[in-house]
Amino acid sequence: MMDIPLYKDAVEPIYRQLARYFRLQIEGGRLLPGDRLPPTRELARQLGIARISVVNAYTQLQEAGLIAAHPGRGTFVTGTRAQTGGPGSQWPLRHALNISMREMTRLARQPGVIAFSGGTSSEEFLPVEALRHAINTVLDRDGAGAVDYEEAEGYPPLRQAVSEYVSSLGIRCHADDVLITGGAQQALDLVVQTVLSNGDTLITGNPTYLGLLDIAHVRRVIPIGVPFDAQGMRLDALEATIEDHRPRLIYIAPTYHNPTGTVMPLHRRRQLLGLAKQYDIPILEDAVYHELGYHDAPPPPLKALDENGLVLHASGYSKILLPGTRIGYLIAGGALQDRLAQVKQAADVCTPGLNQRAMHVYLSSGALAGHLNRIRAELHARCETAVDAARRYLPPGSKWVEPSGGLYLWVQLPDNGPTAAELYVTAIQHGVAYAIGTLFHTDGSGGRHIRLNFAAHPPTRIQEGFKRLGEAWDAWQQTYAPAIRRTPIL
Ligand SMILES: Cc1ncc(COP(=O)(O)O)c(C=O)c1O
Question: In this structure, which residue's CA is closest to atom 14 in ligand 1?
Answer without folding.
Answer: 119
